[in-house]
Specification:
The protein is 29% helix and 29% strand. The protein has seven helices and twelve strands.
């Protein structure tokens, strides 16, 4: 109990100091946490079933979110990560047949990019962007696809839940996703504004784009960085 109070106090200090943007819930729907504390997100469970389509961008070495969703709803999860360590880890796992993995990432354009690997060799997640946690002098060429190309390749015109944890690249791809012509009921984002000097401005622009496309915040994690959005029309139907 004491540790939790200290943790909350530290988080509140970060928010008040401006280190992290305070994001508040805007829509009242029920929600459920899926995954562990490190790799989880809140999901609105109503209507999710074995026919639901879930996209999961950014896997690393943690499929706790994906497995929890599969176990809870029996749906197919389409997971994406171009990181060499992640690909190797996935190949070593015994995976559910409903976990569909693709060894490429998402970008605003389709093609190969130089992918910055983490400074700490014990870490997994890299980024197409240069920020404080990656080494721009240690890169690997990886395949990327834009959102429209991914959905056309997989034949999806509707996605129930889209999860994005891509180490800062959420700011690069969000507009391309929203303009992709695919109906998306829920968008779950881990925000990495702490990685950038202009991170708060990036977050403001991202939040505006989502709002302009009819999305509202329905849940915020304890760390204040995993934000769950729902399409307003979907919220009205639950």
């Amino acid at each position: 109990m004491v540790k939790e109070l200290i943790k909350k106090a530290k988080l509140e200090l970060k928010i008040r100091s401006g280190a992290i943007t305070r994001i508040k819930k805007e829509t009242a729907v029920n929600y459920k946490w899926h995954g562990n504390k490190y790799g989880g997100f809140y999901v609105h469970p109503d209507g999710l079933n074995s026919n639901s389509i879930v996209y999961s961008f950014g896997i690393g070495e943690d499929i706790s979110f994906d497995q929890s969703v599969i176990d809870s709803y029996g749906c197919n999860v389409f997971a994406f990560d171009p990181t060499p360590k992640s690909i190797a880890w996935i190949k070593s796992q015994q995976l559910s047949p409903k976990f569909n993995f693709f060894d490429y990432g998402i970008d605003a354009k389709t093609g190969f990019v130089n992918f910055n690997l983490p400074k700490n060799e014990n870490y997994v997640s890299g980024s197409i962007l240069n920020h404080q946690n990656v080494n721009e002098n240690n890169t690997v060429s990886v395949p990327m696809k834009c959102f429209k190309d991914i959905t056309q390749l997989l034949g999806h015109k509707h996605i129930d839940v889209l999860k994005i944890d891509i180490e800062g690249s959420e700011y690069v791809v969000i507009d391309d996703i929203l303009a992709g012509g695919v109906e998306i009921d829920q968008i779950l984002l881990e925000l990495h504004e702490r990685f950038f000097d202009d991170g708060k401005a990036k977050t403001r622009a991202l939040l505006k784009s989502l709002k302009d496309h009819g999305y509202s915040v329905f849940a915020v994690s304890d760390s204040a960085e995993e934000i769950s959005f729902i399409k307003n029309s979907s919220a009205a139907n639950t």
